[in-house]
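quick one: adenosine-5'-diphosphate bound model?
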Amino acid sequence: MEIIHISAECYPVAKVGGLADVVGALAKTQTQEGLSVKVVIPYYNLSSLKTIQTETIFSSDVKLGQFNFPFSILKAFNTRLEFDLYLIVIPELFDREEIYGYRDDIERFVAFQIAFLNWQKTIETIPSVLHCHDYHSALIPFMITHSYEYNILCRIPTLLTLHNALYQGQFGFDKLHYLPQYDLSKTNILEWGGNINSIAAGLRSARAITTVSPSYLEQINTNGYGLEYLFREVRYKSKGILNGIDTEVWNPETDNKIAAQYGIKNATVGKKINKEKLCEMFHLDVNIPIICFIGRLYEEKGADLLYEFSKKTLQENAEKFNILILGSGNEAIEKQLQSLVADSQGVYNLFVGFDEDLAHLIYGGSDFILMPSRTESCGLNQMYGYRYGTIPVVRKTGGLIDTVQDIDKNGLGICFQNETVEDITSAIERAVTLFENKEKLNTIIKSGMMRDHSWNKANQDYLKMYKLIIK
Ligand code: ADP
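yep, here:
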């Protein structure tokens, strides 16, 4: 079985968030299980990509309305990846240092998809499944089914996985001519709310849909960022498959990004060394718990609530816990969080930016990981938290519901209901109380570290899904 993943991100070469981790780890697991797996992403101006050895295997043009973009396909070699990586080079659109966030993101990712299909239509062997991820590749199922140019690909089964349905790749009908000529009677498939909507087109055209957790699938049926009706309509071909984590990359016993490696048996000692390192780096108090936050600083992640909560904590001069933040995103929120450092009282600090190594150290050295998410399709941080003995404190939403049970219900985390500073405050108070009860704390830490979050189950579920759509 040959699977091609088409994605905007892939760990370890191009990462903004969980999409990268999932595509990289799933592709790796599938290869280990004997599938032939290719991952195709754009070639960004990132040092992680520029240092890869590649050979050009195909060149052509993408026509996007009146624009013409030359592109080439690079095959990576001598990588330490366990799957085949292909890079689509469209210099004018992707030779940039960020993965997203440009005004022409629509042009960039529509061109990416067309380039992919222009290449695929020249290849004799037909893949078993095209596995599309998020809006960046969600037009592919539509294009292979209805664009005359890709007729040769029209029978390839497609699976669309939604990692974040908030971003839908919408654009006006004034850009309809970007799409390769298609059967115009099918325009309704593209349309949602008066616009072309890549996710809507993908939902209607893909043979099957998956979300990255079962609860998220439930949730978007009633609160689907405007697409709930459509989510309900395609429910018959949808399934929630809970993400796993790469237990080799995220393993405190072998992790060389942390200050001291540790396993379940020596977690207390190991975590203490990592915590001391963190406290030294960020001038925090080693005697009280570290509550960390790692993630994109956006409202969807509750980053604004994190600011309000941190501000209130510092104002109250409580000094019962440290707050340590690693993140980047919304500039206004970044500035707000930075403004608190002036009055940090040795219990608050942050690093604004993206730093993979630091993330590992923070998971290793913190006591609790706070996720005040408004929405969370799955969430990986809580699983990394478990693995590193860092107890998750989460709002009950999406995949967090599927992965974190409250300690009062025999679970291994602390859960709260509402998107409010009050709820975060009382959850953190419970965390501080737990921290003081060392016996219970250690039991929870060790039980969390024993949880199985490997990809084994999800991998089997994806395999079933592939078999279902390969008729
Ligand atoms: P999302 O994909 O919505 O951003 P997830 O919880 O699924 O959230 O995944 C987030 C991933 O991105 C985790 O691997 C987390 O450690 C990582 N991450 C997020 N922000 C940063 C950052 N500033 N520096 C390093 N890693 C980060």
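The chain has a mean pLDDT of 97.
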